[in-house]
Fold:
Amino acid sequence: MDKKRIPLELLLLFSVFVIATCGLIYELVAGALASYLLGDSVKQFSFIIGVYLFSMGVGSYLAKFIKGNLIDKFVEIEILVGIVGGISSVVLFILFNTLAHFESVLYLFVFFTGCLVGVEIPLLMNILKDRVQFKDLVSNVFAFDYIGALLASILFPLVLIPKLGIVKTPLFFGLINVSIAIFLCYYLKKELSKPLSLKVKSMAAFLFLLGLFFFSDTILSYSEEKLYGENVVFTKSSPYQRIVLTRNTHEFRLYLNNNLQFSSTDEYRYHEALVHPAMSMAKNIDHILILGGGDGFAAREVLKYKDVKKITLVDLDGEMTQFFKNNETMRRLNQSSFSDPKVEVINKDAYIWVKENQKKFDVIIIDFPDPSNYSLGKLYSLQFYKELERLTTPDTKIVVQTTSPYFAPKSFWCIEKTISQIFPFTAAYHTYVPSFGEWGFSMASFEPVNNRIYRKLPNLKYYDYNFPQMSYFNKDMKVKEVEVNRLDNQILVRYFDEEWGKVQ
Structure:
């Protein structure tokens, strides 16, 4: 071989690196997509990792049956990996709202991708076995494999999802897979038995994926409009969630990972019920802490009190808070609350921030998303409320959104019971929000919650300061026995999954 040419063994080892990187990216995309669309991120990632590793084992076993020109076969498999892995997100987004057995299709994609990736490594080792000493072969192959996996795991959350999104990322890596195949078709044409056929296949695959890449936003918009049944006016994939804003003739709706967060027609009911009972009963309201509330609506309600000196709002997702700060429509809805000099927005994990902070607050408003997965469930845990206790004074009032007492009574009373382990006095209450149904909250304090009103605001649209009425629960919203939600059991997430699974 010409000395100026790259040695075949080095070229194929680089292919191992690419295979490992692309393969893990496809696996991570499937996991992220499943958590976006199906919820319960821990379960979905666990199942997908298991299926992917199993399918790689199946592929490795099947590799021994491949005969003929092995380099030809490797190029063909590289093309197949690029196509199957590349189109996975596009196909799954389109099929989500049309297939009754969507999960089966999802896991089939994971299985076939894993099989193809599993075939490639032993195939490469067979190609190289007569060119490299066995000990060097094994160590080099696995070294490049693991380095590629490391690179993928770093790039995926930090670069790929924020910059490319959940649909373009696998298409981009599909193009990389096919590019390797194209390069091999030209560079190793003398070692291929059918170079022309492989060139045509690889170029056709590249053009196909490239077309999907450029039109992916249009395809995604189409699929999301079918999914939500409304005009999609804004979409964004942050490192933490998929943000979708829709509009119809009379309202805007915000969805996070396919879960409705608010409707512009009735969000005031929710936010007035969340904010004003605690604000009216607190002795002092100088310093307010809002955990969650990245839409700025809770801050909007707090800013109606002129005595407030400082609002600290902690929300994990900077994409979310920036959207609600800068988008003109959202600014109108939240009355530019994030631009008010009294409001400080901190984009950080609330659990970590609470553990690190020492400042005391007069009112703490907790407006987290529902505990649909374990990363959210920790924010409703006994350990979290214990950390939160350090930020309180004897006069502090705390209020927590606690999901629906009608659709998810176990979840609701589990949160209430967990809070009551730390704070001596609690008061559960609820209200009706048309977009969500019956919705619940819990107020906690170091003194009895007796509805003593220190201040009232005129002209609220919904809340009339009749707190005892909101504290009454009918029989169908009560349960007898629930456990405390702890970090080591996360029983709340299981309650939530069980109850809302029946509704859906």
